[in-house]
Structure formats: C-alpha cells, structure tokens
Amino acid sequence: MGAIEDLFHKLMTGEFADRWNAMPKYVVSSTLTDPHWDNTHVMAGDLAEEIIQLLGSVDGEIVVHGCATLVRALIELDLVDGLRLMIFPITLGLRNRQ
User: Fold this and answer.
1) For the chain, which residues score pLDDT lower than 50?
2) CB-CB contact of 58 with 39 (8 Å)
3) What's the rounded Cα separation, in Å, for the pair 38 and 1?
4) Using CA atoms, how far apart are residues 73 and 85, in angstroms rounded to an integer?
C-alpha cells in the first residue's frame, strides 16, 4: 500500500470515519447517480433551486471544498456570503525545481 492509500485508510477508519460518515454531504453532479458514501445526497437539478432549497433546510454554514467551477456558478447566482482562501504549501524535490 502506498503512502496516500495508507493515509486515506487511516483517515477512513475509526473516530474520523464515524464523524465523516455521520455528516450530510451534498454533491453537485450531472453524472453521479448513486454515491457510495454514507449520508450523501446528489444535487442534479437546477443549481439555483437546489442550493436555495438546501439553504432553507440546514442550520449553519455550507462549505464548498475544492471546486472552482461550482464556486464561480454560486457567485454568479449571488448565493455566496463569503469566501475563505486556504493555502497548503508543498515542498518540491530538486527534480521539479526550475
């Protein structure tokens, strides 16, 4: 098992996995019909209608992780209250240095 697979396996077992699986997850997709994750809902209809309905049904914040296309669409629909930019620095080996 590689390092990434090992890390993923550690994350998806135990207490973290229990909490992750208990959280509701909403996936915006035009192709996914049957997600394999616990407590996951696919939003495949009109984006504005789906998000407005979601906003009316949940308490707290809705967070988008890692999809610039979705964020742009939500901004254009005036459905974004705020943005947080998270930066994760990485170290590259000598082979990739220019």
Assistant:
1) none
2) no
3) 24
4) 17
